[in-house]
Write a structure and sequence with these properties.
Elements (H helix, E strand, L loop, with lengths): L13 H18 L9 H21 L28 H16 L3 H28 L3 H7 L9
Length: 155
């Protein structure tokens, strides 16, 4: 696919740059399209769950593996502990949960469209990242077969 690159290359493809820029732009727009801290308990719970998931994923992944870009660093390793036992992309799950909390708190059409755009962007980024992981780690296919993408036991 155009835009995909050699896994060993440490530079970022145009696709990767576009996905990360779009992701962060959409997050910022969703965040500032309404109040930052929800008032409803359901939305607060979703936000806390997203934050805890992100922290747990970060602790499992470690600082050396943390990256916004889907390319795998030379020193990168496959993480399958912590929340990665249940979902392959818990950081994406956390971003979607936190932004969903903002969106459902004030579901303006503009905010809903931004959230759908973010979900679509993360979906494309996830697909690209999985291709890179499959090429880099032979055991990723087995891990992929037994682990859900974003939602434990469901999807």
């Amino acid at each position: 696919m155009t835009g995909f690159k050699n896994v060993e290359d440490t530079s970022h493809s145009w696709l990767s740059l576009a996905l990360v820029a779009t992701q962060f732009l959409l997050i910022v727009l969703i965040m500032f399209a309404g109040p930052l801290w929800p008032t409803h308990w359901g939305s607060k719970g979703m936000m806390v769950l997203g934050g805890v998931t992100a922290l747990w994923a970060f602790l499992a992944m470690g600082l050396r593996n943390l990256r916004a870009f889907p390319e795998i660093p030379q020193h990168g390793r496959l993480v399958v502990r912590g929340p990665y036992r249940w979902v392959r992309h818990p950081m994406y799950t956390s971003v979607l949960l936190i932004t969903l909390a903002w969106m459902v708190e004030h579901p303006l059409p503009f905010r809903v469209a931004l959230w759908v755009g973010l979900a679509m962007t993360l979906w494309v980024k996830l697909q690209y990242e999985e291709q890179l992981l499959l090429a880099r780690f032979p055991v990723y296919e087995e891990y992929r077969m037994r682990t859900k993408r974003l939602i434990p036991f469901l999807f």
